[in-house]
TrEMBL record:
PANTHER family xref list: METALLOPHOSPHOESTERASE, CALCINEURIN SUPERFAMILY (PTHR43143), SECRETED PROTEIN (PTHR43143:SF5)
Taxonomic source organism: Sphingobacterium hotanense
Protein name (record): Metallophosphoesterase
Domain Calcineurin-like phosphoesterase: 37-262
Domain of life according to the entry: Bacteria
Matches recorded under InterPro entries: Calcineurin-like_PHP, Metallo-depent_PP-like, STPP_CPPED1
């Protein structure tokens, strides 16, 4: 009899866990949120993984009203190879053109529904990974394609080809709490010219009462330290250490920095970074690295198990709650109990 009871309990435990699943929602109905998408490159390089990324985009569309989503940020490495014609079928089975077409068609599903700001990563430059500065980003993304982006953009920074693009840009949003917010996106390891432009832009009196969220691809490492110079061939590059000293620390209104880039096969610890420092105004700057591309099977796996984050900003104007969630796991009752990462590094809150 005891064995029968134990057997029934073991059989029932997954059911109890599944019943405990609660659909993502705001903790306060007057909060607002934004969605942070980690590096999508592994979703793009294998055709079999494209559906998972579209599931993530569909989830954003379906929940934008219930989560009061104001915008979407993506940490870069939009593709695996910027300009490679013949992938070998192991590293990737999609050409660069197919990868760029796939990532742009996915994000374009948000056009007219929610603004999105996309960083460019090392894989978005050069032949395979930042051998030189050229990127195909401008061929597949323009600010005008999303009318909500076009309405929000305020500044455009220097690009190598002289064109006006969203590679280095500033977007302005007014939150539902009537707070003035800028999202500044900077290219991978931004050039000195770009850093100087960013400083001068944020020093303008018209932005003195704005809070700034900075989005760039490479900033924190897995030890939550500012990234030192890496071994890419490009020169005139500012990685995390230099960017903090030249831009973030001297600023008076940068309050948050978001980046991706880092990872380790099926190891969350290698994908995450978090720290706080003071800026020149004595204000705390929250800095967060979030990636997931090697979860779900490593570098050649399923792209990252569908993981993303949504950050809830409470009406007090200070409290921010972070949730790490997978729309992929949330689809099926058999896997919903896995849809939230509950560890202290994945679900937490902080004060601005």
């Amino acid at each position: 009899m005891l064995g029968l009871i134990l057997g029934l309990l073991i059989f029932a435990l997954p059911t109890f866990a599944q019943q405990a699943y609660v659909k993502p929602k705001l903790s306060n109905p007057d909060s607002w949120s934004f969605v942070l998408i980690p590096d999508p490159q592994t979703y793009m390089k294998f055709e079999r993984n494209l559906g998972t990324f579209h599931t993530m985009i569909s989830w954003i569309k379906e929940n934008k009203d219930s989560l009061n989503t104001q915008f979407v940020l993506c940490t870069g490495d939009l593709v695996e190879q910027n300009d490679l014609l013949n992938p070998n079928g192991k590293q990737a089975n999609q050409t660069s053109k197919q990868q760029w077409t796939s990532i742009s068609s996915a994000f374009h599903r948000l056009n007219g529904l929610v603004p999105y700001v996309l960083a460019t990563g090392n894989h978005d430059y050069g032949h395979v990974s930042a051998e030189y500065r050229a990127t195909q980003y401008d061929k597949y993304f323009s600010v005008e394609q999303n009318p909500l982006n076009a309405a929000a953009i305020r500044e455009v920074g220097p690009n190598l080809n002289g064109a006006s693009t969203g590679v280095n840009a500033v977007y302005e949003f007014k939150t539902p709490h009537q707070q003035k917010l800028l999202v500044m996106v900077l290219e991978f390891a931004p050039r000195n010219e770009v850093v100087e432009w960013a400083k001068k832009t944020l020093d303008q009196p018209k932005y003195a009462d704005h809070s700034v969220f900075l989005l760039t691809h490479t900033y924190l490492n897995r030890d939550s330290k500012h990234m030192p110079r890496e071994g890419y061939k490009i020169e005139d590059a500012n990685y995390g250490e230099a960017l903090f000293e030249k831009l973030v620390k001297p600023s008076k209104n940068i309050r948050m920095v978001f980046s991706g880039h880092i990872g380790a096969p099926d190891n969350w610890g290698g994908h995450l970074g978090f720290r706080e420092d003071k800026n020149a105004a004595g204000k705390s700057v929250v800095q967060m690295a979030f990636n997931a591309q090697a979860m779900g099977g490593g570098w050649h796996g399923n792209g990252g198990d569908g993981w993303l984050r949504y950050l809830e900003f409470l009406p007090d104007g200070k409290t921010v709650k972070v949730k790490t969630f997978s729309p992929l796991f949330a689809i099926s009752p058999a896997t919903r109990h896995l849809a939230f990462e509950r560890s202290a590094t994945q679900e937490f809150e902080f004060k601005l």
